[in-house]
Automatic annotation (TrEMBL), chain A:
GO terms for cellular component: cytoplasmic stress granule; eukaryotic translation initiation factor 4F complex; nucleus. The keyword Flavoprotein does not apply. One of its GO terms (molecular function) is RNA 7-methylguanosine cap binding. It comes from Vanderwaltozyma polyspora (strain ATCC 22028 / DSM 70294 / BCRC 21397 / CBS 2163 / NBRC 10782 / NRRL Y-8283 / UCD 57-17). It holds the Pfam family IF4E. Keywords: Initiation factor, Protein biosynthesis, RNA-binding, Translation regulation. SUPFAM superfamilies: eIF4e-like. This is Eukaryotic translation initiation factor 4E.
Length: 210, 152
């Protein structure tokens, strides 16, 4: 169902002036929100400033959202990627999936990833495009292959990663990867790789390259 | 499945900033604090010439340390003879002689006995063997003579 369909449906239900306000009719005092297909959670990985900090100390959920309006409210209130300190990560994951390989929902999956050496303003725009494609589900397949999306801020580079729930559905993964390249505005000369989580950390080997 | 295109999502973006369900100010404060710590660390890193306080390793000498030796003074006279002049050494000799005189100053010396054989039956010194030797053997005739003199 598209946003226009949702809006039309709301308008058809409304019979008088007391109809619920949407973000389209009143951007600050709307009553009805546009639901997303899933609940999503924003996670943040804080860079370690003390050697005693472990990975579990650094990775924390920030907030969750289930509607388009909630999503925009969060985006307007958190720092943009170019404002983040080095070694920070933003993660947006579906439902209650933790952005870790060990999570049962991720254990049999993998990730499409691409490193970008680009201006910070471009990173902000590309991260927003990736988020919109993921929460709007336009990048995903009908059977929902995507678990989440990650942005890693590093010195001189930024890494975008799209996490999937499976690593063996080549056709679906290829479709997702092709759309991911479009979202990141990559050309034919830019190559993205799919790496199953099972091979990460040992001998990293991409199973699909686009 | 509900889908929203990128354009549709942008269309639904509120013009005003809306309240959120978490403490955004605290979140921003944490990020700012981390940035400050990172900036301080980088400043310290640069101040130390691109390395942190590494202790100087014992392997930093790639060869023998340089020791500066003064060159000996050689003078060549009109006949072409070169003479080695150890001018500094003369001064050193004087210093050494002074040192020697200082060393001669009498001191109370503690003599440490050699206790190596102190519990042994063997004498510690060969001289002791001579000293312990019985020098007067018993003369029986002489003893008889002396008895007779006493009786008379």
């Amino acid at each position: 169902m598209s946003v226009e369909e949702v809006t039309q449906k709301l308008e058809s239900v409304a019979v008088d002036d007391n109809s619920p306000k949407t973000v389209l009719s009143d951007s600050s005092n709307f009553e009805v929100k546009h639901p997303l297909n899933s609940k999503w959670t924003l996670w943040y990985t804080k860079p370690a400033v003390d050697k005693s900090e472990t990975w579990s100390d650094l990775l924390r959920p920030v907030t969750s959202f289930e509607t388009v309006e909630e999503f925009w409210a969060i985006i307007q209130n958190i720092p943009e990627p170019h404002e983040l300190p080095m070694k920070s990560d933003y993660h947006v994951f579906r439902d209650n999936i933790r952005p870790e390989w060990e999570d049962p929902a991720n254990s049999k999956g993998g990730k499409w990833s691409f490193h970008i050496r680009s201006k910070s303003s471009d990173i902000d725009e590309l991260w927003l495009r990736a988020l919109l494609a993921v929460i709007g589900e336009t990048i995903d397949e009908d059977d929902s292959q995507i678990n989440g999306v990650v942005l890693s801020i590093r010195k001189g580079t930024s890494k975008f990663a799209l996490w999937t729930k499976a690593d063996d559905n080549t056709e679906a993964l290829t479709n997702v990867g092709t759309k991911f390249k479009q979202v990141l505005k990559l050309g034919d000369e830019d190559k993205i790789e799919f790496v199953p989580h099972s091979s990460t950390g040992k001998y990293v080997q991409a199973t699909i390259t686009l | 499945m509900v889908r929203y295109t990128v354009d549709e999502l942008f269309h639904l973006k509120p013009t005003e900033s809306l309240p959120v369900q978490f403490d955004a100010e605290e979140f921003k404060a944490i990020i700012e604090k981390v940035k400050q710590i990172q900036a301080l660390k980088e400043e310290e890193f640069n101040a130390h010439g691109g390395h942190f306080n590494r202790r100087r390793s014992s392997h930093h000498h790639h060869g023998r340390p340089k020791v500066k030796h003064t060159k000996p003074k050689v003078t060549t006279d009109s006949d072409g003879w070169s003479t080695f002049e150890a001018a500094n050494k003369k001064v050193n000799e004087d210093e050494e002689s002074e040192n020697v005189s200082v060393a001669v100053v009498p001191e109370t010396l503690k003599v440490k006995p050699n206790n190596k054989n102190i519990s042994s039956s063997r004498p510690a010194d060969n001289k002791d063997i001579i000293a312990d030797k019985q020098t007067h053997s018993f003369n029986a005739f002489a003893a008889l003579e002396s008895d007779e003199e006493e009786e008379t």
